[in-house]
Structure formats: structure tokens, C-alpha cells
Write a structure and sequence with these properties.
Layout lengths: L3 E8 L5 E6 L2 E6 L8 E4 L4 E4 L1 E6 L12 H10 L2 E6 L10 H14 L3 E4 L15 H6 L6 E2 L9 H12 L4 E4 L12 E2 L2 H6 L3 E2 L1 H18 L2 E4 L5 H12 L4 E5 L1 H5 L21 H13 L4 E2 L8 H4 L16 H9 L3 H16 L16 E11 L18 E11 L2 E5 L2 E2 L2
Parallel strand pairs: 1-4, 1-5, 6-7, 7-8, 9-10, 10-13, 11-12, 13-14, 14-15
Antiparallel strand pairs: 1-2, 2-3, 5-16, 16-17, 17-18, 18-19
This protein binds (4S)-2,6-dioxohexahydropyrimidine-4-carboxylic acid (DOR) and zinc ion.
């Protein structure tokens, strides 16, 4: 195993120090370290964070390897500063059996760029009718602990209750895509003034809020863990605030795009802005930012949703929902929260690692800790060029925007996956 001596780095914004990485762990920290044979990296001006952890990534393999593969998505993740991602189950075939989750897990190991933790489907084929083999997926080599029909809501309350009861035995989590389908039939964008003006069918905020309200009550009744995917409205924040105050075991995520963009983007009719749940209003963005800062929303998760050109560059109504996220999430969070490194580490690394049970991730760089970390240049400004992204897809809503911060290096168990801002393999 190689060793690296990182000189003059600021760990989470603290005074510069040296970090010696050896045998997969942070071996030593302190001033003026020396180490024979170690590769020396000058990290003056850089900030070290625990490697980022994404609880919500679509890798598209198996089934849509033209849009993303486990390997290409892992590379995008490493370049974004991630050391672990949770792969969503809406692949083709769906990850609803031990066989498919083991395949994704094995592909992740072979790529070796981030730890890929598969998420299993809650229902067979994401059809919302019968529970999938949750126990078999939990017992598989992939050791699945999070289950989600993301892209679809587990709308049937009896099925949702059963799923929560089932995973309680192994402290599993149901991650809900909160969307009451009867309220969003034909929906194209957020229901509000802009949808009225454009004449597009609206996706009302209450369709999300009603499901979250129901599910926190179910989780409270069962005593199980609920995670709410991509929270997008101010009303959802209030439902979560009340549930958390009562001690319900609920966690929640927000995406970078819901923290930055609003429904006025739909006026361009550019399907790059079509996403589910849809971009909301300024008031929603303000509430989501406040909730992320105060902890009612626990984490930032990307909902990285790569789509092939033909699925995105078409009429708005026919375009698939979703946007890329892995390679820009840290920059957007930095833009939204400012250089509050401890808070960024909490929301993008420690808490998602804790929720997912990824014990070797989400740990601040300190002696003896697994060397899963990322080095960021906070002073860099970066213009987003879709052609330069590692993802196989191009559907970034940030094309041409200049964003703060650049990932300079990422280490997975002491081995660099990114150096000098470039993927190592
Ligand atoms: O915009 C979205 N895209 N939302 C989802 O829930 C699913 C995702 C996808 O798979 O493309
Ligand atoms: Zn998703």
C-alpha cells in the first residue's frame, strides 16, 4: 500500500496541519511531519473533509448502461468528493432480489472508486403491490439496510405499514418517495402561478406533504425508521419539524437542485429542469435552506439521475425527470451554506454515513481513522462544462454556471481515486 503525506491542509477549516496516510488509515496528524517513501502532496489552502456519502444515487446499471454504469457513476462520485454512494433500486431489472443487489454491489467493488451500497426495492418491480424479498436482500452479500421504490411512492398505506414492520427486525429503513399519485396524475411541474401561466399540469405541494404526514404517523405507530427522499416544500419541512419534536424516528434529505433552483426555470421549456419532485418556489427554497441549517433536514443527497440524450432532449412532456448531481453537489452546498465546513461535513458525510450504517465513512480525519477523505480548494471557481463531466449523461442544469469550490483529491481507504482534480482510473 502506498503512503501519502498531505502538507499544510486545513481539516474542516482549522489551522493547517499535516496528515500522514499509510496502510489505509490516517496514521498521524501534526505539524512538520516527515515520512520516508511517502508521496508528498502540497495542500496549502485546501480543506480536508471526511469523504462525502450520497444516500441517493441512480447508477442505471443494470439496464441503462448508455446513461450511466456503476463504474462511470462511481467515477463521477469520486470526482465530486464522495467515498460512498447508495445506489437506488429503479434499475432494469429492478433491484428487488438478492441477485440484483449483489450484482450492483460486486460491480461497485470491481470499479473500486467509491463504496457502492445498494438500496433494495420495497415492492416487486416497484409496482406497489407486493413486498419484495426484503429479508433476502438484507441477508445477501450486499447487506441491504435501506429500501426504496424511489421514482414511485409506496402509496398503499397497508403495504407501507408492512414494510416498516418488516425492516424493524434488522433496524432497516424505508426511504419514501413522497408523492400521492392521485394528486399528481399528468403533472409536469410545480402547481402554482408559473404552471398556470404556462398551461402545464401542476404537481401540488400537498401531494408530498400528505404522504409525509401519513408516513411519520405510520413510522411512529410501528416504531420503525423512515427516511424521506428529496423533500421539496416548506409544508413538508413543517410536518417533519413536528414529527421530530415528538421523537419520531424520521430522517430527511434535500437535493442540491431544490436548494438552488425554482419553478421559473420551466419558462425556458428546457427539459433539463424537469425533475421529480419538481422545482418549487422561492419560499420553498428559503424554507429548505433554513431546515438544512437547523437540522430538520438531516442531509444533502444528490438524486443524481443521469438520462440519455434522447430521453432529455425532447419535448418537455415526454422528457424523463431527473438531473445530474454528483459532480456539482459540494459546490452547490458550499454556495448555499457558505464555508461552514463542520456543517457541510455533518450534512454530506457524517449523518448520511450514520443513517446508512456505513461505519468506515463519515469520520473526521484523525489518527487511526480509515482514510476516506476529500481535499477541496474553497477558493477555486469552476465553470460547469457538461462535456467535461465523468458521467455518461449530460443533463446538468448548471451548464455554463460558475460555482465555488473544486475537489482536488479524494482518498478511498488510503488510496487516491482523484488527484489534481482528475480521476486516477
Ligand atoms: O427526477 C427524478 N428522477 N426523480 C425520481 O424520483 C427518479 C429519478 C430517476 O430515476 O430518473
Ligand atoms: Zn431518485
Amino acid at each position: 500500500m502506498s503512503s501519502y503525506l498531505i502538507k499544510g491542509v486545513s481539516v474542516l477549516g482549522a489551522a493547517p496541519t499535516d496528515l500522514l496516510i499509510r496502510d489505509g488509515v490516517v496514521a498521524e496528524t501534526g505539524a512538520d511531519l516527515a515520512a520516508d517513501g511517502a508521496t508528498v502532496l502540497d495542500a496549502a489552502g485546501l480543506v480536508a473533509l471526511p469523504g462525502l456519502v450520497d444516500l441517493h444515487t441512480h447508477l442505471r446499471e443494470p439496464g441503462r448502461e448508455d446513461a450511466e454504469t456503476v463504474e462511470s457513476g462511481s467515477r463521477a462520485a469520486a470526482l465530486g468528493g464522495y467515498t460512498a454512494v447508495c445506489a437506488m433500486a429503479n434499475t432494469s431489472p429492478v433491484a428487488d432480489t438478492a441477485g440484483v443487489v449483489e450484482q450492483v454491489w460486486r460491480l461497485g467493488r470491481e470499479a473500486g472508486l467509491v463504496d457502492v451500497q445498494p438500496i433494495g426495492a420495497v415492492t416487486v418491480g416497484l409496482a406497489g403491490e407486493r413486498l419484495a424479498e426484503l429479508g433476502a436482500m438484507a441477508d445477501s452479500a450486499a447487506r441491504v439496510r435501506i429500501f426504496s421504490d424511489d421514482g414511485h411512492c409506496v402509496a398503499d398505506p397497508r403495504l407501507m405499514r408492512r414494510a416498516l414492520e418488516y425492516v424493524k427486525a434488522f433496524d432497516g429503513i424505508i426511504a419514501q418517495h413522497a408523492e400521492e399519485p392521485r394528486l399528481t396524475e399528468g403533472a409536469q411541474m410545480h402547481e402554482g402561478a408559473v404552471s398556470t401561466r404556462l398551461g402545464l399540469t401542476g404537481w401540488p405541494a400537498v401531494a408530498e406533504e400528505a404522504i409525509i404526514a401519513r408516513d411519520v404517523l405510520l413510522a411512529e405507530h410501528v416504531g420503525s425508521r423512515l427516511h424521506v427522499c428529496h423533500v421539496s416544500t416548506a409544508g413538508s419541512v413543517e410536518v417533519l419539524r413536528q414529527a421530530k419534536a415528538r421523537g419520531v424516528r424520521v430522517t430527511a434529505e434535500v437535493t442540491p437542485h431544490h436548494l438552488l433552483l425554482t419553478d421559473v426555470r420551466a419558462e425556458t421549456y428546457d427539459p433539463v429542469y424537469k425533475v421529480n419532485p419538481p422545482l418549487r418556489t422561492d419560499d420553498d427554497v428559503t424554507a429548505l435552506r433554513a431546515a438544512l441549517a437547523d437540522g430538520v433536514i438531516d442531509i444533502v443527497a444528490t438524486d443524481h439521475a443521469p438520462h440519455a440524450v434522447e430521453d432529455k432532449e425532447c419535448e418537455w412532456a415526454y422528457a424523463r425527470p431527473g438531473m445530474l448531481g454528483l459532480e456539482t453537489a459540494l459546490s452547490i452546498t458550499l454556495e448555499v451554506l457558505g464555508p461552514r465546513w463542520d456543517l457541510i461535513a455533518e450534512r454530506m458525510s457524517r449523518t448520511p454515513a450514520r443513517i446508512a450504517g456505513l461505519e468506515s465513512h463519515g469520520l473526521d480525519p484523525a489518527p487511526g481513522v480509515p482514510a476516506n477523505l476529500t481535499l477541496v480548494d474553497p477558493a477555486a471557481q469552476r465553470r460547469i462544462e457538461p462535456g467535461e463531466l465523468a458521467s455518461l449523461s449530460r443533463n446538468t442544469p448548471y451548464a455554463g454556471m460558475t460555482l465555488p469550490g473544486r475537489v482536488v483529491a479524494t482518498f478511498l481507504r488510503g488510496e487516491p481515486t482523484v488527484l489534481d482534480g482528475k480521476a486516477v482510473k
